[in-house]
Amino acid sequence: MVIGIDLGGTKITGAVFDRKGTVLCKQSALLERRQGAEAGALVREIIAQLIALHGAEEEHIAAIGICVPGIANSKTGKVWAPNIAGWEDYPLQQELEASFRTAQVHIASDRTCYILGEAWKGAAQDCRNALFIAVGTGIGLGILADGRVLHGHGDIVGATGWMALETPYREEYATYGCFESHASGNGIARQAQRICEENRLFKESVLYRTTPTSITAQDVFHAYEQNDPLAAYVLNKAITMWGMASANLVSLFNPEKILWGGGVFGHAIRFLSRIYEEACRWAQPVAIKQVRFEVSQLGGDAGLYGAGRLALMNVE
Amino acid sequence: MVIGIDLGGTKITGAVFDRKGTVLCKQSALLERRQGAEAGALVREIIAQLIALHGAEEEHIAAIGICVPGIANSKTGKVWAPNIAGWEDYPLQQELEASFRTAQVHIASDRTCYILGEAWKGAAQDCRNALFIAVGTGIGLGILADGRVLHGHGDIVGATGWMALETPYREEYATYGCFESHASGNGIARQAQRICEENRLFKESVLYRTTPTSITAQDVFHAYEQNDPLAAYVLNKAITMWGMASANLVSLFNPEKILWGGGVFGHAIRFLSRIYEEACRWAQPVAIKQVRFEVSQLGGDAGLYGAGRLALMNVE
Fold it and tell me: Is residue B121 part of a domain?
């Protein structure tokens, strides 16, 4: 028996899993702007509740896996999570090990947990080589290569949002990275905002009726549905970038599957075949024939299942 | 005791290694345009000579590792090597296992062997995360991630020459890949040839004195030394591409080291600090601080040591 915890930016969800991956019980709570140690206390509270709810003894929990919205340093057990104030270098592993003395504690980034979850219970089952591209406010990549998730020297593999895909260099790339500047949720919003502020090329766009700084990625997708030319310009660019980026991942990793998910990608599912077509132009021609582009099967549960799998794989 | 064989496009070199990696004896021969089964026979001949030379019994050789100039299919044991006629799908593993019945046979691509060799006896010793960028007529990438070399679903990871780095798409990318079109040995030669054929923008270039189709990458490097403007244009572009490509590898793999080698890179060593500067503009800012760019330490021996390591790691 293990516990998996998905700590999101606004919500925390936990579950008790048996060794087959069945969810035995589940619990969640809103983070409600908790900061620093308060956020840590909530994680411990949810774990304690899950143990009580399941009626288990604490020592029957072999391991606890945690999916965090940021980076987990495997050497120090500390977490950097930009959306939780005070979690620049938070000693989550140490805290949890002090509270739950008999369980192993394993922490990994959300992007790593997403691919672990999908490989265990979702669209990448039986894959030894699969990638999860998470397109949300930013863009992250979870990597399963030859049957193992990758971590890298400093636990920050998969920073695919920083991929260089176009010359010349632009100043905004220094803050957001090139790929993310064009194709993340925030990037799509910013590109539309910039056009609204700088020029009036797309005269008939509905987006000009909004204050530029308030435009969101969702606004751009909605305008696109109404054949808005500015929205089409911004999203066509994003499609090119999604295609080029995924082509690069195909050439480098030679995966069986690339899974697309994340908050923004719900809206972008309709573009999947166009993204694949774009990727076909750029990728290594043999490798592109060996891969399939699919949508995340677990959706919002990918992180929770990934956390459960993270716990289980370390006790197996 | 193991044997490592480096099968190049023109030459074959083999060595007997002890378990510490000491070369006990070495042997080489020119391939002299041997094709198909003749090339396979030469590999067996070199192995037999090494066994005789070392005065060993055949059954004391625990494993044979082969570095091939192409792709080794780990499921079938067959090799695709574009520079050896008749090796589109050559059953090298099966042949060697039939001839040397007591030894395990392991085959890997040259790019994989390069990073294995450097991690064992070269510039990436003690690294668990390191990459080898081999810039020759093409561009390949050997990947050591979390202590293991990657293979991928169809054994073709590391096709980094196909990396998309620039819009708009150009027809030549369909044949060579975007990165390779600008920054491999053949790519550098072709870019110079194209400019010579299409325009005369760089009036004073010495390269206009040559028949365009006969221009080589070496000609471009030599012209660059004489401050030739056409050569400077072509190589500055290559430097930008080397910088962007390596930035992408840093963001994706979070390595400790990126090693540069291959036939063309001898000439390009002088550009290493400029390549690193370019990479700093594009890469994930934390990951770029964790990596060092260095030149291959083993040079032309990287493949041989990699083949030896490949043999040894599979019997350890």
Answer: no
